[in-house]
Design a protein that fits this description.
Blueprint (H helix, E strand, L loop, with lengths): L5 H6 L17 E7 L3 H12 L6 E7 L5 H8 L3 E4 L5 H14 L4 E6 L8 H6 L1
Parallel strand pairs: 1-2, 1-4, 2-3
């Protein structure tokens, strides 16, 4: 089983298990990103994540995007939880936290889609 897909490779994303490969063991860190539209910001975040050297799994919780964000994430093979009504950011964080607990991860990072993650930050967070 592989952790990479062709579409992820186009962005340099070698992160997270493929949705169909649920038997893969998770990395010790889950990064959960919340988004609601604004694909350009999400794409820039994904590029910044792709530059990281530390291993992690990625989950996106998308709330009601109608700008093609969901389709683009699906094309990249990135796991997405779809929220179809406005529940609020805390609700979305809790959905990610449930996945964190179910995946037996050690570290949980929450990010909105409008941030860029600098190199080395995941290692620093573990200290």
């Amino acid at each position: 089983m592989r952790r990479r897909t062709h579409k992820r490779r186009e962005l340099g994303l070698f992160i997270g298990p493929d949705a169909a490969s649920s038997s893969l063991q998770p990395h010790e860190m889950l990064i959960m990103v919340t988004t609601s539209n604004v694909w350009l910001a999400t794409e820039q975040l994904l590029v910044s994540l792709a530059a990281l050297t530390e291993p992690f799994d990625l989950l996106v919780v998308d709330e009601c995007s109608s700008d093609g964000t969901r389709q683009r994430l699906a094309e990249l093979g990135i796991p997405v939880v779809h929220v179809n009504s406005s529940q609020g950011v805390t609700h979305n964080w809790n959905l990610g936290y449930q996945r964190f607990l179910a995946g037996n991860y050690t570290y949980f990072v929450i990010a909105n889609n409008d941030v860029l993650v600098p190199p080395g930050v995941l290692t620093n967070l573990k200290r």
